[in-house]
Design goal:
heterodimer; A: 159 residues; alpha+beta; Ubiquitin-like (UB roll); DNA polymerase, domain 1; 2 domains; 34% helix; globular; B: 287 residues; Enolase-like, domain 1; 14 strands; 25% strand
């Protein structure tokens, strides 16, 4: 069977790609669209490294087929900064040293941004539960949680 | 190797036709199917994505109750205020499945048809008395949720059949439901025991109906009539709760594994059933 021709929106841009049925959205983002900011950790929806927004909802790109993206809108980590201006969450991860190896970081930032957009003033418990599907094997989470809480506070001041 | 086809039908009839093919698999949220695909455990001839069918994606309140499409995601059902107010136990069970990311995709239909004995939403659906509308080559039929799963990975759905939606009858006044799961950590784990309870009180606080669903303690999720019967005609006092706990433990036929021994799961089933009943009771009283 011929490959599927898929038209979709990624980070606000209209894009087209060809894929086979079993290629995941993660495969397509990384291998066809060369958007390698989205990372592959487990590939089975357990680690959250491939977190992206699909029509405004947080999902694991490894659990979505590329062909399912037809007609939908996807935001990846590449769509989080505005040009050279980092998003406040990205800046706070740097300021608070909330990353070491960095593989989990794009997923954490996409997931944290999704939380703060619907809950600008979360408790620490709410942050921890929301991010329970994002695994980090380096930091022990404390710095990540602190960075999200600090970013939230700064974003509230600016709002 | 043959390429896997992908179909996204827009009607139930078209989906039935596509699922008639040998080796066809249903795709709803994909949180089980894509893991099986990647692991090489399944190689479908065609993946039939049922999310393009409006009946599978809607949440509708009718005169008789709610209809919830089988492909509605946990995050969507949880955000539906009227449904969450009427069936908090169903929503809390559904939303225990996986992470925020999984909640963006996982569906009630998928959680049931994946046929895990430990599926979190299923005991709550059983307790709520939810029914499934099933489509197939012979038209549509209805079945109770407790009649779908027969064993791990096995269901009573015939080849080509799929669940269209779940029906929740409007409960009588003073009805409450609750779901509790025991896991050794706080989040992101598979139930050692799961219990759903739904009960109704009359004006004087006497229980007039109760249903208890048990998960992870038998090869399939169970309706435990004896546990429900233990509450009916009582004020859900200590004696009734003790009888309910004993009935829940007696219904267990669990496996022995790293998550819990047979003895442990059997005991916890009784303890958790009691706690779930107390939680459902508080909701029935409007507390």
């Amino acid at each position: 069977m011929a490959k599927h021709h898929v038209s979709t929106t990624v980070n606000g841009d209209q894009v087209e790609f060809l894929c086979e049925t079993q290629q995941t959205l993660l495969d397509v983002l990384r291998d066809e669209l060369e958007l390698t900011g989205t990372k592959e950790g487990c590939g089975t929806g357990d680690c959250g490294a491939c977190s992206v927004m699909l029509d405004g909802r947080l999902v694991c790109a490894c659990l979505v087929l590329g062909v399912e993206a037809e007609g939908h809108s996807i935001t990846t980590i590449e769509g989080v900064a505005k040009g050279n201006d980092l998003h406040p969450i990205q800046q706070q991860f740097l300021d608070d040293a909330a990353l070491q190896c960095g593989i989990c970081t794009p997923g954490f930032i996409v997931a944290a941004k999704a939380l703060l957009e619907q809950n600008p003033d979360p408790t620490e418990t709410e942050v921890r539960f929301w991010l329970a599907g994002n695994l980090c094997r380096c930091t022990g989470y404390d710095k990540i949680i602190r960075a999200v809480m600090n970013a939230a506070a700064k974003m509230r001041e600016e709002a | 190797m043959e390429a896997i086809e992908y179909a996204r039908p827009n009607t139930i009839d078209d989906a039935v036709r596509r699922l008639g093919a040998a080796g066809a698999r249903v795709l709803a949220g994909g949180t089980d199917l894509l893991v099986q695909l990647r692991g090489g455990y399944t190689r479908p001839s065609v993946i039939v994505d049922i999310k393009g069918i409006s009946e599978l994606r809607r949440i509708e309140q009718t005169a008789s109750g709610f209809r919830v499409g089988a492909a509605v995601a946990g995050a969507e059902l949880g955000a539906h205020a009227a449904f969450a107010a009427q069936w908090p136990g169903v929503v809390e069970a559904f939303q225990l499945i996986g992470s925020t990311q999984i909640q963006g995709r996982a569906s009630l239909g998928g959680n049931l048809c994946n046929a895990s004995p430990a599926a979190d939403s299923v005991p709550a659906l059983i307790a709520a008395g939810a029914r499934c509308v099933i489509a197939g080559a012979g038209g549509t039929r209805e079945a109770a949720v407790e009649d779908i799963v027969t064993a791990p990975g096995k269901t009573t759905l015939a080849a080509g059949e799929f669940i269209v939606e779940f029906l929740f009858a409007t409960p009588p006044a003073k009805t409450g439901d609750a779901y509790l799961r025991f896991i050794p950590r706080t989040e992101m784990d598979i139930a050692v025991v799961g219990v759903g309870v739904c009960l109704t009180l009359d004006g004087s606080g006497v229980c007039t109906a109760a249903r208890v669903g048990l998960g992870a303690v038998a090869p399939r999720p169970l309706l435990v009539p004896a546990a429900g019967a233990a509450l009916v005609g009582t004020t859900v006092d200590d004696a009734a709760l003790a009888t309910l706990a004993a009935a829940a433990s007696a219904a267990c036929n669990p496996i022995d594994d790293k998550r819990g021994t047979i003895e442990y799961r059997t005991k916890v089933a009784g303890v958790l059933a009691r706690r779930a009943a107390v939680a459902a009771l508080a909701r029935a009283r409007g507390q």
